[in-house]
């Protein structure tokens, strides 16, 4: 069945579903939005990722777990209780039970497997998929936009539809790809599949004859794109599995929307006194925690400046083992216990690629919602069914030439915000972020860093 989805009466996207094994309603998976991108005029705004839309963080974690089970079914024919997890993704009241089931039924792989998540949107999704597996023969790493001068990228490639296209990969172990027979590539959405194909070609050039699994929530490849996969399998002599929650086609011939100005909620807000409308002061708290081991690297900023930053080794950017997953869970629980009481209406924010650790922290806080900042510029509109209702923007604290965006935090929606970054935010950036939260009526603000 073919359905036409309209975006702001400016863009028409024709969607046809071929496979929907878990019978998800499309409205439960995504909303539509228009974006500032000449390569593709629209965006499927995921309701499962925790990126552009605030969600229950456990739902985002569980989405990865479901894909993990589906991978095992596709590659080894194993059978698990999909029904409970699917029910939980459709109804939050089953989420705790479903996560307990997933944790009690981790999967051991006999084939050495490397999981790779794509920056920036799928870094946490890839980690969540990886968390469903256990064993000493598996590893997770995500690609990064950060160009690190001391590191040699194991592979680099371009993402064709993305706003920021370059990917690097910096495992701390040399020759990492030689250790694994199967490579699992995780992205939130596949449009043409060329990003994965580019990566497979890049890997195969140095490490031939691997087995691949391409994983996504949404797979929109048309017949000609699927043929490209089959052709590449024959050309390289490899096997490529595909795993997704929904498989179909999406076609759009509309040009990118022009002439729409985005009104940012915080754009006209000066520094001003730090008091709320009722006269109470803004409460700003800083929490510095130690998180495992660190490495110092020199990052090339977008203007060419070189700057030294400290990175968390277990963030996923440099590779983590399955044993690190339980350590992340335990550390997140300790952080939440240390901070103590939270407001009932609390939003936890990860930043750009740094999504999984903040997401796990958020999952330990009762009633918390979670989302992340993003580099993607998207049009905001108050139309009821539109995916981006409102927008705020600020300069990235760690590369001020990059604009970051936060979407769908409406005025007076939350009483408290936790802004979680890999390292401490400088005073100038902190003031900008405080003003952003003030503009939406949040006066209890915690900066958490490591």
Description:
The chain has 450 residues and is an alpha/beta fold. It has a domain at 283-293 and 322-449: Rossmann fold (3-Layer(aba) Sandwich), CATH 3.40.50. Helix content is 26%, strand content 29%. It has 10 helices and 25 strands. It has helices at 26-29, 57-76, 82-90, 95-104, 123-130, 194-206, 223-236, 323-339, 356-363, 427-439, and strands spanning 2-7, 11-19, 30-34, 42-46, 107-108, 113-117, 133-134, 138-142, 147-148, 157-158, 166-167, 182-186, 189-190, 211-219, 239-252, 283-288, 294-300, 306-312, 320-321, 346-350, 369-372, 391-396, 399-407, 416-420, 444-449. The strands form 7 sheets. Strands 1, 2, 6, 8, 12, 13, 14, 15 and 19 form a 9-stranded mixed beta sheet that branches. It has a 5-stranded parallel beta sheet with strand order 16-25-24-20-21, with helices on both faces. The chain has a 3-stranded antiparallel beta sheet with strand order 9-17-18, with no helix packed on it. Helix 2 packs across helix 4. The longest helix has 20 residues, at 57-76. The chain starts with a strand and ends with a strand. Residues 29-249 form the Orotate phosphoribosyltransferase-like domain. This is Phosphoribosyltransferase. Residues 315-435 form the TRSP domain. InterPro entries: PRTase-like, PRTase_2, PRTase_dom, TRSP_dom, UCP020967.
């Amino acid at each position: 069945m073919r359905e036409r989805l309209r975006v702001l009466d400016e863009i028409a996207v024709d969607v046809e579903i071929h496979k929907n094994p878990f019978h998800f309603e499309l409205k439960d998976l995504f909303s539509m939005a228009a974006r500032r991108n000449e390569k593709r005029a629209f965006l499927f705004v995921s309701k499962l990722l925790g990126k552009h839309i605030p969600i229950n963080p456990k739902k985002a974690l569980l989405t990865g777990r479901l894909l993990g089970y589906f991978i095992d079914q596709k590659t080894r024919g194993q059978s698990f209780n999909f029904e409970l997890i699917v029910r939980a993704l459709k109804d939050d009241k089953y989420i705790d039970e479903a996560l307990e089931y997933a944790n009690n039924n981790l999967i051991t792989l006999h084939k050495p497997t490397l999981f790779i998540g794509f920056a920036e949107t799928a870094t946490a999704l890839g980690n969540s998929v990886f968390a469903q597996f256990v064993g000493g023969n598996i590893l997770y790493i995500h690609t990064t936009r950060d160009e690190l001068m001391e590191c040699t990228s194991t592979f680099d490639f371009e993402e064709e539809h993305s706003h920021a296209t370059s990917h690097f990969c910096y495992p701390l172990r040399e020759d990492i790809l030689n250790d694994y027979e199967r490579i699992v590539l995780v992205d939130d959405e596949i449009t043409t599949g060329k990003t994965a194909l580019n990566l497979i070609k890049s890997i195969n050039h140095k490490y031939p004859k691997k087995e691949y699994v391409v994983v996504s929530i949404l797979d929109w490849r048309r017949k000609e794109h699927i043929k490209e996969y089959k052709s590449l399998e024959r050309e390289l002599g490899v096997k490529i599995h595909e795993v997704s929650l929904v498989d179909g086609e999406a076609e759009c011939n509309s040009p990118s929307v022009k002439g729409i100005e985005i009104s940012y909620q915080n754009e006209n807000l000066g520094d001003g006194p730090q008091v709320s409308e009722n006269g109470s002061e803004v409460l700003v708290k800083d929490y510095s925690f130690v998180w495992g081991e660190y490495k110092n690297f020199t990052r090339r900023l977008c203007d060419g400046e070189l700057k030294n930053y400290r990175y968390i080794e277990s963030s996923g950017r440099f590779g983590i083992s399955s044993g690190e997953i339980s350590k992340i869970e335990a550390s997140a629980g300790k952080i939440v216990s240390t901070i103590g009481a939270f407001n009932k209406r609390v939003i936890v924010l990860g930043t750009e690629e740094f999504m999984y650790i903040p997401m796990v922290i958020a999952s330990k806080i009762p009633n918390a919602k979670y989302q992340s900042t993003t580099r993607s510029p998207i049009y905001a509109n108050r139309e009821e069914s539109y995916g981006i209702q409102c927008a705020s923007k600020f300069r990235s604290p760690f590369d001020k030439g990059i604009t970051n965006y936060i979407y769908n935090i409406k005025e007076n929606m939350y009483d408290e915000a936790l802004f979680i970054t890999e390292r401490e935010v400088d005073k100038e950036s902190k003031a900008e972020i405080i003003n952003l939260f003030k503009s939406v009526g949040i006066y209890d603000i915690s900066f958490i860093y490591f």
